[in-house]
Every structure is written in C-alpha cells, then in structure tokens.
Automatic annotation (TrEMBL):
Belongs to the binding-protein-dependent transport system permease family. LivHM subfamily. One of its GO terms (biological process) is amino acid transport. It is found in: Cell membrane. This is High-affinity branched-chain amino acid transport system permease protein LivH. Keywords: Amino-acid transport, Cell membrane, Membrane, Transmembrane, Transmembrane helix, Transport. GO terms for molecular function: transmembrane transporter activity. It is a multi-pass membrane protein. Its main location: membrane. The chain crosses the membrane at residues 6-27, 60-82, 94-114, 134-158, 190-208, 220-247, 259-279. It comes from Microbacterium lemovicicum. GO terms for cellular component: plasma membrane. It holds the Pfam family BPD_transp_2.
Amino acid sequence: MGTFVQLVIDGLSTGSIYGALALAIVLVHQATGLINFAQGGMAVLSAYIAYVFTQLGLPLIVAILIAVVISFALGAAAERLLVRRFERGDPDTAVVVTIGILTLATGICAWIWGYDNRQFPSLFPLSTVEVLGAVVSIRSLGTIGAIVAIMIVLQVLFMRTKLGLALRAVAINPESAALSGLPVGRLLMIGWGLAAALGAIAGSLVAPQLTLTPGMLDGALVYALAAVIIGGLSSPLGAVVAAWMIGVLENLAAVYVPFIGYDLKIAVPFLLVFVVLILRPQGLFGRRIVVRV
C-alpha cells in the first residue's frame, strides 16, 4: 500500500509540472485561438529573470512577482510585434511563429546564462511528511496546491468575469467581437501577457525540482501538450486533471505493468492521446464545437 501511495503522490507532483505549462497553453488558446508552442521557452526565460533578482538579494516571492510583471510585458510585446502579423493569416503559419519564439527564448537564455545547471530556490520547505506509509515532500504538496489554486482562478476568469468572456469571444470570432465593440488587439495582447505571467509562476514552481537550465521544460512541454489534448483545449480543469492522470498512470504502469517498465512508460501519454482522439476528439472536459455551413 505504501508503494502505491508513493507512486500516486509522486505522479501527482510530476503531473503538476505538466499541468503548469498546460494551463498556460489553455490560456493562450482561450484568448487567441492559437496553440502556443513558445510557452515552455517563455516560462524558462521568466524563471531566469526571477533567478537574477534572487541573486541580487531580493526575497524569492518579490523576485517572482517582479518576473511576473516583466513576463506580462514581454508576452504582450511578443503578441504585438511578432504574432499579430500572422494571426489573421494561415493558422499554421502563426503556430510556426510560436515555435520560432520558443527557439529564440531558449537561445537567449543559453546566450546570457549558459547551459550550467543552476539551483533555483524553492517557495516551499524541503522537509517531508508521511502519508499512508509514503514519504512526501512539502515542496511537492505545495506545488500541487499552487496548481490547484491557479486552475480555479483561470476557471473563474473564463467562466465568471467580463474579461474572460471577452477573451473567449475574441478567440472564437474576432470579426464579430470587433463589431460588438470589443478592443480585439488589446485583448489579444492581454491574453498573451497573462499566459506569459502564468508561465513565470509555472517556471518558478518547476525550476527547484528540475534545476534551472535553458532546456529545462523541453520534455515537459510535450507532456503538457498531451495533457491539453486529453483534457480539452477549452478547459483549465481538464488540462490539470489530464496532466495528473499522465503523471500517475506513467508511474503505475512503470511498476505494475512488466512489459512497459521505466523504459516504455513514455508511451503511456501518447496511448492516452490516441484513445481520446478516437473516442472524444474535443477532450475529456472540452466542449464540442458546432459549425454552421
């Protein structure tokens, strides 16, 4: 029983890393209708910004808040100066632009700070507690709690606030939104800015567990995209639940399914994606879109 609980809790902790990025991807999609492949690179850049301020002697929470503000400005600037030139054209072109921003952000981090592993301070203590025979770190529990809080805030933002409804309207039909008097350009900038700010929080939560490097989130981004597909592009709740599901099922399959083991556990999320795309293409928590023709 202790082993099972340990695997589940470790899976939830790992899944929270994927969920942090998945939430930012959902946020951009809800605000702009695009899949933002640059989210991992932007989160890493934000984590480095927070790291610089901690090295200047500022308290960690203050450094993270400053990084959030700077990241919001950078995200809004990226939308205004780069992405907007391609948003009204072929969606595939805009997606390629986000991949270019990912490469640019990663390259800037490597150019300025190099590829050395850097230890990022944690918001939570490194002590452990025992839960049903499993040893769990306070940092893992804190990360899970933070992701739950962010998920709730985003769910409320999109479902219960005027800003969230306006962002969704712009993403679904920018022309109709503009005719309704919504400032489409400004809302797109806000959407990218909010996603970059969320990326700063995600990067600061993840960096203590992975160590800070330019490629820190490359692998996690793949899992985050899988979580978004499984959970649904329109649901912050679905993205987090799917990320936790991936983390837990990976761990359980590695231990309890002999032919999978640790070598093949990476196939678990992609098998889930395959099944979900066949049975429920909009995702487990996503909304079915009806198009009139």
